[in-house]
Write a structure and sequence with these properties.
It is built from 12 helices and 16 strands. By secondary structure, the protein is an alpha/beta fold. Strand 11, helix 9 and strand 12 form a beta-alpha-beta unit. The chain starts with 9 loop residues before the first strand and ends with a strand.
């Protein structure tokens, strides 16, 4: 059989709020990936994860709770769940066996019976043999034999995965993903417009957007076309406060933002142009730099600014973003779409810098001339001599300076600034470490 390329088959996990969908998704994935909390409605969006079972890969989509009578935000979640049903290859319908089939479950089952996709009814919270009788009552849904599972303890999850694989269309065997869309983490504090931007670039209602700050409590992967190229965007939960002081849902969402940055190649930090640059904004930027990812700073809501605010913002940027003058900057409006297409060029430029390697000969010729003009300051009466510089790595660019003595932080910053002036590195952090060679044959790393 020839290996398939293209998208993986999709399994949608649906059901009313708080029946244990996210816990089941975590069990299928074998890791804590979905935000789980004892509050109905914690998962407010459809969230895609890649899963592997018996050598077959597939995508699992966790959805917000399905409620046909919902209004407001609840109605948005219902639309997301229905969309997941329409686009899935297999539907896993989760019911709480301890509660039994509710009116909402029965209403959902009626819609699912009309679906032309395979539907696997799951009786969750069957923790022991005694509670299996509750599971058999769910034959009343008219969707065939209910599969007894304890998502929390793992009971029956292997059998369920086997059933899912049997129902899936032919899926490709696990293979290393080469190439593919570049990974972009979209980060920023709550309510700066991350979901609106995802919806704008995806040209569909992809994320639940509500005027309540922090509506997105989980990342949502979207493959979008921007500037004639495909990108994989991860929309992340808003960072509210430091991880160690955040609680419950916020705690996991904060961890996930960190994870999204780590999984990305370039991060777009979204700031609200109509609000003062805050400590939270600064913290998100620091996370991106510390993770060594390429960086684009996008100022959203630019179309709402008057002349006074623009001048004030320029002063704030000069003062608060002085340490990231090298970051790529773009002004956009997620609402009107203004400037959004320019984002692709900024992403490409930042990634090109992130992957740039300077030839060793060219690097040393430049640094030698630089050091001759501005030698490092003396320490304890002796001025260190720079012997040699090499670029040790890319993604991000890392340089190692071999010197006869310690180089002050100020001189390292000077070297970084001059390397940027000469070679660009626009949109990427660069790292400079020093190896001190004190005498013949001895060498120790510094910083």
């Amino acid at each position: 059989m020839s290996e398939q390329t293209g998208p993986l088959p999709v399994v949608a996990v649906v059901g009313r709020p708080n029946v244990g969908k996210s816990t089941l998704v975590n069990r299928v994935l074998g890791r804590r990936a979905a935000v789980v909390q004892d509050t109905p409605g914690v998962t407010r969006d459809r969230i895609a994860y890649e899963a592997l079972w018996n050598g077959k890969r597939f995508t699992v989509v966790d959805t917000g709770g399905w409620d046909p009578r919902a209004s407001g935000l609840g109605a948005s979640i219902t639309r997301q769940a229905e969309y997941a049903m329409q686009t899935a290859d297999v539907i896993v319908f989760v019911v709480d066996s301890q509660v039994g089939a509710t009116d909402t479950d029965l209403a959902a089952a009626r819609i699912l019976r009309r679906s032309d996709r395979p539907v696997i009814p799951v009786a969750n919270k069957v923790d022991d043999e005694r509670s299996e009788a509750n599971a058999s009552e769910l034959w009343s849904l008219g969707l065939g034999e209910p599969q007894p599972v304890s998502a929390l303890h793992g009971r029956g999850s292997g059998d369920l995965l086997d059933l899912i694989l049997d129902a899936l269309p032919e899926a490709p065997r696990e293979q290393e993903e080469e190439g593919g869309p570049r990974r972009v983490a979209l980060v920023g504090r709550p309510n700066v417009g991350k979901s609106s931007l995802i919806n704008r670039v995806a040209r569909e209602e992809r994320s639940v957007v509500d005027s309540v700050a922090g509506t997105t409590v989980d990342p949502v992967d979207s493959i979008v076309t921007l500037g004639g190229e495909e990108w994989r965007f991860v929309d992340t939960a808003g960072l509210r406060r430091k991880v160690n002081t955040a609680s419950g849902m916020e705690y996991y969402a904060s961890l996930r933002t960190e994870a999204a940055i780590q999984a990305a190649e370039v991060a777009v930090v979204l700031l609200a142009a109509d609000e003062v640059i805050s400590e939270q904004d600064q913290r998100v930027i620091t996370q991106v730099i510390e993770a060594g990812r390429a960086l684009v700073i996008a100022f959203n809501k630019w179309d709402t600014l008057d002349e006074d605010r623009r001048l004030q913002l320029e002063r704030e940027i000069e003062r608060d973003l002085a340490r990231v003058k090298w970051a790529s900057r773009v002004n956009i409006s997620a609402l009107t779409g203004r400037g959004v297409d320019k984002l692709a060029q900024h992403l490409r430029e930042a990634l090109a810098s992130w992957e740039m390697r300077v030839p060793t000969a060219e690097l040393n010729t430049y640094v030698r001339a630089l050091v001759q003009e501005t030698p490092p300051p003396a320490r304890g009466g002796r001025a260190p001599k720079i012997k040699y510089v090499t670029q040790a790595d890319v993604r991000p660019p890392r340089f190692v300076v071999f010197s006869t003595g310690f180089l002050e932080a100020g001189y390292r910053r000077f070297l970084e600034r001059k390397l940027r002036e000469r070679f660009g590195f626009h949109g990427t952090p660069i790292e400079i470490s020093v190896k001190v060679r004190e005498g013949r044959g001895s060498e120790k790393p510094k910083g």
